[in-house]
Each structure stands twice: as structure tokens, then as C-alpha cells.
Amino acid sequence: MVISGKITLKKGKEHSIERFHPWIFSGAIQKTEGDLTDGCWVEVLSFKNKTLGFGHYQNGSIAVRMLTFSPVTPGDDFWKQKLSQALTVRHNSGLPTNSTNAFRLIHGEGDGLPGLIADYYDGAIVMQAHDAGMHLDRKAIAQALQTVLGDSLKTVYYKSQGTLPGKLRDVLQDEYLLGSGTMPHVVLENGNKFLIDWEEGQKTGFFLDQRENRKLLGDFSKGKKVLNTFCYTGGFSAYALAAGAELVHSVDASEKAISLTRKNIELNGFDPHKHACFAEDTFDFLKDKQHEYDVIILDPPAFAKHRDARHQAVKGYQRLNTEAMKMIKPGGIIFTFSCSQVVDRQLFYDTVVSAAIQAGRQIKVLHHLSQPADHPVSIFHPEGEYLKGLVLYVE
């Protein structure tokens, strides 16, 4: 591990680091020493010259992402130790199982590795870097993954062309750091089969964060007519059918997503007469469906990826929920979500309340939903809780 320089904080700015918050903002820095370039390792010191830890430097609003909170310089076994700790968390939470062989192995700040995502798909790791430091260390991370996972790891695909900042994105090509891949790749999630295409699909190929919420949907689906909006690869649709839904409709504006949904429904051997796909805008689809569905899933992509877009995002969530509440059958169930990190849990709840007022119907909250155990949130970094959801009963 090569430490390229030092960063000294302004007086009082060490407190958040002493409380293990992993971000140092540029305005907290008093001075820098050494040849600091994007992605390099730096030592972080308090204004009293006390070593607080080590992290990745980047010229930006978040100037340092902390990787250790110890005065001891990270050794050659750093990546192995961190990955082993993350794997232990998954094993202790019951993953993998005989019926689930896909899960998130590394969840950024939640695993003490800000800027890094790694999803495991039955022998394959899809890795994403969100900052220059993880990009520069990608080969060392891949080697450590081989060591930690052993023979169970067949391939590592590095998919960061769409997630890295600035100029790095312009010159980078996604690549295999280990082995190769045959697309699509079949995984199991709670006994349901899903095709994963990490080369062409969104994110790492699948939305693993909804696993437990998809499972919960099954409790509400037997004998029901279910609408899955923004369906992507049809995850919620498959769970509803597996639970005995009378009819499931899957809606997504993307023809590619609809094609993947059809393939997943076929892969699981569900009755094709109980499922239909629609490549349409969700808002347009909802217009003339009054009292047609018993259960509706609202799982849109992030309406806001930065604070400047938050107001418009809130209006989008409000409109979407209002429309669903107006048209669902009496006694219906709505699963509604936000994955926008800048829309916190309270703001999302308030937005849904506002939608209920506009819809003019009595609503009860049955469940508060979040991300599963393989997407942990550091108690010192509450910003890591990005997925918010509610299960609503509409009278």
C-alpha cells in the first residue's frame, strides 16, 4: 500500500472522523502534503498532527473517503481482511442458501469500503467503482476476491464505465478481471430463477436490494390481480406468480426490460395465460385502469440523483402514488418505493401522505420497508439507507 501524501484537517473537523463517518469534505482540509492525484492513498491528520486514519483522495466535494480509522498504515492484506469481514456479515445473515445464490458482497460505506460495490451471482462477481481510488485498486481487489472466495469464484467483471466520475468514464472500457462470462447467467433467488446479463443490463444486472420485499409481496398475491410497474426484469412479477396470483401485468417503458421479463416468466415455467407485458409509460398505462388491480407495485428508478432535482422528484413520487391510489380496487395493496438517496425516509413518507390526501381515500400503513441485510447501513453513515418503501392498504 503506497501512501502518496498527507491531509491535515482544520480545527474541529476531526470530530466526524472520530465518530467514524467516512467522508471528508474539501472545506474541512487545512493543508495537503505530497503529490496528491485522484485515487491516491493519503494519511489523514487532525490539526494537532494526530493520525486519524487512511483513505482515498479525490479532487472534489468529497475529498477523502476513509478506509481505516487507525494510525496503523494499511498492510498488504488490507483488501483480504475487508472482503473477509464483508463475507462474514453475509454468512451470519444467512446468505447464500440452497434457494438463493445471488447477493451483494460489498455495499460501499456499509462495509467500510466507500466507492465500491460488488455483487455475487452464483460464481460471478460484478464489481463497480464509484471513485478513482477503487478504480486504481481494482486489480488488487480482484486478487483478494479470488483469495477470499476460492473455487466458488469463476469470473470478475469490472463494470464502472457508467459509475466513475469525469474523465475516467470517458477512457474506461468495462472488462473481465478474471475469467469470462456467458450471457445470460441464471441465478436463484428464494427459489425463483432469473437471467442476469451484467454486460448489457442496468446496474450490475439485477436489483438485489428488493429480495426481501419481493418475498413479502408473495404474502399479498395469492388469488389477486397484480400490476408491477417499472418492472425491469420482472422480479416482483415472478414472485407474485409463484405465490399464486390470478393475473399479473408487467409494465416498463423499455422494450429491452419487457423482453427480459418475458424470458424470466418463461424460465420459471409460469402459466403464460396468467401474465402479460406492456412496453408503455407507467403514467399513461394507469389512466384507464380504474378498480382493475388488487395489488400494485410502484418501484420507479431514482427520480433524483442529486439535491438540485429533489423537488421535481417529490412531485413525481406524489403524482405516481396519487394515480395508483385513485385507481386501485377497494381493499387493495400498494407496495411503493423510493431509491433516491436525497429523498430521505421522512420526506418520502410525507410525500405519500400528500398523495393520499389528493387521492381522497383512507390509507393504512402495513409495513415500512428498506434494503436487506446484504446492503448494510453503517450506523455512523445514515446516508447509506437509500431504499425506502411502504406497504399500504387502500380502503
Give a structural overview:
The protein has helices at residues 15-18, 78-92, 132-136, 138-149, 166-171, 211-218, 235-242, 255-267, 282-286, 310-327, 345-359, and strands spanning 3-9, 23-25, 29-34, 41-45, 51-57, 62-68, 102-107, 116-121, 124-129, 155-158, 175-178, 185-189, 192-196, 225-229, 247-251, 275-278, 295-298, 332-338, 363-369, 388-394. It is built from eleven helices and 20 strands. 28% of the residues lie in helices and 28% in strands. The longest helix is centred in the C-terminal third of the chain and has 18 residues, at 310-327. Helix 2 packs across helix 4, helix 6 (211-218) packs parallel to helix 7 and helix 10 packs across helix 11 (345-359). With 395 residues, the protein is an alpha/beta fold. The protein has three domains: 3-68, Roll (Archaeosine Trna-guanine Transglycosylase, Chain: A, domain 4); 78-186, RNA methyltransferase domain (HRMD) like (Transcription Regulator spoIIAA); 207-394, Vaccinia Virus protein VP39 (Rossmann fold), CATH 3.40.50.150. The termini are far apart. Strands 16-15-14-17-18-20-19 form a seven-stranded mixed beta sheet, with helices on both faces. A six-stranded mixed beta sheet has the order 2-6-5-4-1-3. A hairpin with a 2-residue loop joins strand 12 and strand 13.
